Amino acid sequence: MPTIRQPTPAPMPVAIPPAMIKELRHLLASAISDAKAYDVPGLCRRLNLADGEEQEAFASKYKYAQKRLADVSAEQVVVSARELAAEEQRFELSEQLAKIDELNGPAVTTLTRRRLIALFEGRPLAREIEDIELIRGLWPIGSLRAPHPSDEATLEDYLHRHTIRNDDLTQRDVLETLGLLTCSRAQLFKFLAAVTAPDAFSGSEQIELAEKIDGLLRHDGYTLALAGRISGSPFYAVRVAPTGSPADASISATLAAFDPTQVHARWTMAMERRGSEPAGAITLARTLLEDVCKWILEEAGETWQEADDLPALYRKLSKVLKLAPDDHTEQVFKQILGSCQSVVESLGALRNKLSDAHSPGPKRARPQPRHAELAVNLAGAMATFLVATWEARKEARGGSSSEAAHGIGRKPRG
């Protein structure tokens, strides 16, 4: 009997639920049983399973494989399944392996999947091609079994009968039959990329669908982002949504305490759009600072005009909060406060150059997520500083300390 090769198994992601391993054993045994009976013992040896006689395989190929799979660890079952999946196209086996690989990452919940399916109620999966063509490119429906009970042998025959000949399945029925509620994230993301591809939809319909899908995915930590262009048309891919900077939580807490409705809502929208809509995020970054300046000026009893832009608002506020560099004697504070003024002016300039507040024109630079990340983070930091400074001045006026009232290093009044 030849010696069975024992490679070092790949590390397991997490503890695999017994039900998943049971299903993987079944799928692997089924895949092995598709081989000729006289090839089954050799195939099992190649997959690092125990050897046996051809006569046993001729009696039942499935039982031959299942018996040997039952004798090995879950880790070895996964390794053997990967080896076979690498050699042969086995959709159901590959799907189960993908689900095991995805145990580590954030899930796309059943609720989100139902909401995604609902986007297609009463509309086709594609307008540029037939639905069945799009489905055929994602699922091997010609070899998958039809759902039970059914007179059709394959899933393709079933779908053809009930969506083309009879048209008695809703889009929800079709997508749930394809397994969209339970499929791997990889398969779900392939589907979402396909239905937002330019050969499925075009123009505003494509963009609107992509935005709706992105909005739903973000609840589970993913984003449908622009991946590039083909023949001038955009195409999309699902990615992990950016988690933001370490300061996000601190800024959120400060702005929520200051104004939980308008100001904090503006900050939240800016954060959410950094990765998916850079131009919109840049616009919100400036608007956030404008809101904070106006609110503090109002609380301080100062006036401002609707025509005031961000630099004008900040100049008025800096007088109220004594933030002008000339109000301070220590060089380090003069430099910091001078930089704050530059940040505000730069945010306005960045917005004017890159945001969606103006027509981009054919040669205008397009904002990237890194530009939005910079703008939003700077705006959040500045907004937090202004709010904290205003709160400190209010507290100081209440009699906490003269140093807080006049500012560290500030020039004394003449």
UniProtKB/TrEMBL annotation:
Transmembrane segments: none annotated. Residues 311-387 form the Abortive infection protein-like C-terminal domain. It holds the Pfam family Abi_C. Residues 108-268 form the AbiJ-NTD3 domain. Residues 394-414 are annotated as: Disordered. Signal peptide: none annotated. InterPro entries: Abi-like_C, AbiJ-NTD3. This is Abortive infection protein-like C-terminal domain-containing protein. It comes from Methylocystis echinoides.
